[in-house]
Design brief:
Oligomer: single chain
Strand order of the largest sheet: 16-14-13-12-8-11-17
Strand content: 15-25%
Distance between the termini: 60 Å
Length: about 450
Amino acid sequence: MKKPEVQVMTNNKTFHRVSLIGRLFLSMLFLLSVLTACKTAASETTAPGETAAGDSAEEAGAQEQEKETDGGEMSSWREAVDKMFEDPYGDYSVAGGEIALLTDGDVEDGGYNEALYNGVRMYALGAGVSFSYYNADPEVPESYGERMERAIQDGAGLIVCAGYRFGEAVGDLESAYPQTSFLLVDAVPHNAADEEVPIQENVHCVLFHEEQAGYLAGYMAVWEGYRNLGFIGGSFVGRDLLDSELGYRKQEPPVLRYGYGYLQGIDAAAKDLSLDDVTVNYWNADTFSADISVREKAASWYENGVQVIFACGGGLYESVLEAAEEQDGLMIGVDVDQCRISNRVLTSAVKNIGPAVTDALDEYYAAGGWSAEDAGQVKRYGVEEGCAAIPVVDTEWRFQEIPTTHFFEIYKQMKRGDRTVSDAIDAPPQVAVSVHFE
């Protein structure tokens, strides 16, 4: 049976317009995001002046969905979602897909790469577009550009990739391959000297307000009663990341935004509660992977009284989690809901990667390429788009002293603009709490 689809011709190139079946699949994806990520009931925020009854209804809805997570109804729903990821039409191919996803790690890592992959996969399966994925070697910087060129040579019309090093590869290749389109997530095109280069018309960039998610995680941790907190961020080791003037390796912007937002949230909670005993240890590791140095650092912090560590950077959370389990500490996850990994995960600072990617792909194919609003432009997703939060629904709410209604109130304040978070990353934020940078 052939999958029904509609095609439109633009500039002598055939683009697949999302079919009715495809749009149903995409609708299911957004429903999935509502239940599992930052687009939870928290995104259904009310406008200023709405009644308390509206808040009560919102809370009741969240509680009802939380109850469903342990029942057969939710299990059956999950089975239906799993079935959506089946590929009866053979849209996936090892190489040569119309959409090529490039990563530098396992696409089913249970974290960032998997969220990215699911966004691409859901759109492709729903819209009837072929797709492939290619892996670069993080230990070989030149492999990023090489794998990108391989995908282009294999016939990819749209390259989807994410992160700092792919930002450099796109900066190198965007002009060389004007007929190829690029969707760059969590980065903008730049050169080897870390200087931004003009974004060409064949490139669209998607960024997030990670500082908002970091703020919420830090704020709630302090409100819960934790006074000694930590942050461990990841970075790549390489000459291109070494700031010769400042003398330290610069972090990827998303990591900085998460960390600086986390500090702002901790500081805001301390002020709201009139606390003067809150401290934060802050350290950037030279890796995004599990590493003995990360485990030892986290273990020493826990031994010296740190209660919760925000582990922000790829697989390094594994080392922080090991230390948390050994020392009876807690961890905050990043990017996606990591609560299911361990009961040591207090919460997670999440951004809705998959639906943001799906949204961009939908706009791309509907317009027959990047539209005037997207071509050469950067779009940032945050609280206003329901893409920056902490998990509330379909996960265990592990805060004992905070009702979900309090989270919703803080979230609504942010969405209305009554509570703001700076996204500046040129220097750490000025805060009243004691921060020890290592």
